[in-house]
Amino acid sequence: MQTQPLSTTRPYSRRDWQTGYRSLEQELDYAIEDVAGEIPPELEGTLFRNGPGRLELGGQRYRHPFDGDGMVCAIALRNGRAHFRNRFVRTEGFVAEQQAQKILYRGVFGTQKPGGVLSNAFDLRRKNIANTNVIYWGGKLLALWEAAEPYRLDPRTLETLGPDDLKGGLKPGEAFAAHPWVDPASELDGGEPCLVNFSISPGLSTRITVYELNPAGDVVRRYSHSVPGFAFIHDFVITPHYCIFFQNAVSFNPLPFVLGQKGAGECVQFHPEKPTQAVIISRRGDHEKRVISVNSGFVFHHVNAFEAGKTLVVDSISYDSLPTLEPGQDYREVDFDALAPGQLWRFRFDLASGSVAQQKLDERCVEFPVVHPDRVGRDYRYLFVGAAHEPTGNAPLQGVLKVDLQTGDRQLWSAAPYGYGSEPIFVPRPGATAEDDGWVLVLIYNAERQKSELVILDGRDLGRGAIATLRLGHHVPYGLHGSFTPEYFGDL
Predict the structure, then answer these.
(1) Is residue 419 part of a domain?
(2) Some GO term, biological process aspect, for this entry: which one (predicted)?
(3) Is 241 marked as binding a ligand?
(4) Cα 323 to Cα 342: distance, rounded to the nearest angstrom
(5) Is 301 a known ligand-binding residue?
(6) pLDDT in tens, 46-92
(7) Which residues pair with residue 440 across a beta bridge?
């Protein structure tokens, strides 16, 4: 695929991009034999990815891909070879709808049951779609969706084992969000790794509950705070001493949802004229909370955070506005030019004065950032992020951008004009000491082949191009989040 600047004025085709939004109904299990280049023999472990694998049912399309049923893919790597497997997460709702062969639950982002308003009014049941992230922690593989409990899968077969309450750490009805972070050396745990995650209970006020899990998967700390107003929070960041949440300036009018006219997500309105509230919660002692206002735009994802004396530095992907979801709108017909791009910003919170300074770090349209796992919550130099091909304007993600925060250097690997990207994952090289010494794994949809490919890049030099391209025999619908474990769960 093309990796150099293009001579055409537009490096993508919306029609090509649309073809990635197709269901993958088959559940597959095979060795990947079609490989261009060489898989690094020292790259060993399993890449897990999650996302909506089914986008219609019973002849009815879902209104938004975020309403699609979760499908986990695993690509296991060892000795220069690779194995692919995918399975749907068989939640209670998935099984019921599979048997009925029709939509039985309303989707958060606008999918309605057949039968119109009368069929949907006052039906407030929630279907766990388990479609947003997947992590391997404490010997368990967990599929995550932020509004419900995790679903546990067999890491080797991806068979669904059922809902998981984290050894009793989750109370009945509590959720476990889809964007956990791993503190690589928790001061509260003698330098052991610690997984940190949260849940929110929104309403007139919103309760934020933080969970901290040890390497065995036990919830060793949990603490909660309430904040005024409705909160729409997908991601957060951690440092050794703090959890930081951006409470975006949104409001929620539940009436159209209750009356069956709209999905819950369609009832959220962003107010760009109002500030975001940065909610900073101490991980120590009495878990003190403080709130600092910041004009951040709308933030889905953060890059990283770190402490610099009495200053908290938070790097995030910020949007000037949040696109509204309108009934009858087809998500595949998005006008990229009419939407604000996500861009890289830095926020510096002075904890002594309660003030904040902010700086845009790059103009390029980017999303799904990642850093070296050992630099989470620490000062860091490099980040990798899904990126548009062109340096300005809004567009689909087509490559990976490497940013050197120390020198300001940028490197872009692009799969344009036919490749469409996803969240990159950085895997450190075993024994490496340099922060960027490792591999970047990114699943690319190749619209020319109408199939997907796992591309392996050299984190030290994206300009080398693909070290290896693993060509799948099918497409994988555009996904959301994933993770890598050095544990090998393949059949080779």
Answers:
(1) yes
(2) carotene catabolic process
(3) no
(4) 12
(5) yes
(6) 999 999 999 999 999 999 999 999 999 999 999 999 999 999 999 99
(7) 426, 457
